[in-house]
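Check my protein:
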Amino acid sequence: MPEKGTPEYDWLYGGSSQKPPSDATQKVPTQGSGRGASQAQRPDETRVMPVARREARGSGGQPPGRPSTSSAAPPPRPEKKRRRLPRLRLGLIPLLLLLVLVYLAGVPLYHWTTLDEVDATPAGDRPGDQPGTNYLIVGSDKADDLTDEQREVLDTPERGGTNTDTIIVLHTGSGGRTMMSIPRDTLVEVPDGGTQMINAAFASGGAPLLVQRVEALTGIHIDHYVELGFGSVINTVDAFGGVQICPKQDMRDPRARLDIKKGCQEVDGLTALGYSRSRYVTALSDLDRVARQREVISAVGDEALSPWTFVNPVRYWRINDAASGAIRVDEEMNPLDLGRFALAMTGDTRTCTMPNLPAPSDPNRIIADPERAPALFDAIIEDAGVPGRACTPTGRARQ
């Protein structure tokens, strides 16, 4: 502790001396705020600094003593730029569409070049041109395109197609589409006299003679000829993955290699062929068979219209390849005509069997009904609506 009276003691506690030492801290008189107060300020007095704003205290604030300014607005957000696909990627879309169209058109055109052509123009007088288009569809026993396994199942040798059990006239036009079956046991007149089953014309004279017999019987001008073999039915159905048939009774026919139950069901190509060929199970034999043949053809047409046929390139190729494997067309048909034929077998089509009666000379043969058949023939010739009385599944009159 400093001793009393020493400068250190006086500095800490003050002394009796009235004169402060030269280095003592002196009290600065408070300046008045009134009008009489002196406005002069001592140069060394402590000044009150303005309080800095909160914004200026942080980083980026203004230094003390500078007049504060209003806080600056936040910088504008950068605009988000839309992502744009590269021009090259956008250009691929029309290119892909073009490739799809080329594929859809090119596949049938290629298979068109593999088709067999046949001269189907008959000799002699023919009916004149008629409105609409008439196709003669013939199912032959052509089996030379079957595999060994398929021949073994069908128990059939390799044949070139000399017999037919399917004769159908397909008409398209403004009056609608009509599919008319002509039973193979139909008796027709022959030029040298007498009668003959219509399918015998195909066996003896091929496509030209069969066309001549059909035109003479019906008066319908045949524009195009399409012949389908066993392989085209089997392979086309299998290419679709099967078709739906709806037998009205259980069917077991060893001759047709058929054994199926009643009701709608999906079947493969071999079963579909047997179903369309069977004639020994139902009461009306061949008349029931022609109705089943139209059922199979319509089922194939329904499958062809499925969008999956066109969006699946493998399926599309297989269908065209299978259909062209055992088909023959007339020499005047072009790819456009064949395309129209394929479309005509799809969608809403009126199906009939030629109106018929048992033949007076042989109850196992039939003849065209002289009263009802002309009405159906004339409707096709004139491209008009088919009368319901003349259009029945078996060709027999409704009771």
In short: The radius of gyration is 50 Å. Residues 32-40, 55-62 have pLDDT under 50 and may be disordered. Residues 99-240+270-276+284-390 form a domain with the Aminopeptidase fold (CATH 3.40.630.190).
